[in-house]
Amino acid sequence: MRQKTQTDGKRPPLCHAASGVLEAADAGRGALVSPSTTTAHNFSRPAGSKSVGAVFEQRAQEFLQRQRLRFVARNVSCRGGEIDLVMRDRDDALVFVEVRARAHGHHGGAAASIDWRKRQRIVRAARHYLAGRQCCSRDQPACRFDVIAFEAGRLVWLRDAFRADEV
Predict the structure, then answer these.
(1) Is the pTM of this model over 0.90?
(2) Which domains does the chain have, with CATH numbers?
(3) Which of 141, 134, 133, 62 has the alpha carbon at shortest distance from 94?
(4) How far apart are CA 154 and CA 148, in angstroms?
């Protein structure tokens, strides 16, 4: 089973490219809605949610890089799930990041929207990603699942938000 790569020009391709390449790909899409102008509506609406989601993923990536995590991949997907960001921590652990944004705290907010089923899909995609990287060594890197939640525009970083053995 191979990882899908998005090459339709709407989202940056799945690769281990430097952030400058991703910024150039983002610039080619035209003007995006700024996160500060999205407070009048719910971020998860169907129309335009991919472009709004890409903006929040980019903000989360920039934040994590300021926290000294290194970018590895973006939008890793398999048949059963997707990982928004894959980063590498200073201790060389792989960090699988789910990015969620909600304009309002209705129904528990962004962090609460990651239910058991969503966690299961993230873990499935992470296992798929790790299986695809297994070339020479049998040692799996240490892994962690983080959540970046934008609650009414405010970034909240939940380190080690859940564990693979809990789902």
Answers:
(1) no
(2) 19-166 (3.40.1350.10)
(3) 141
(4) 10
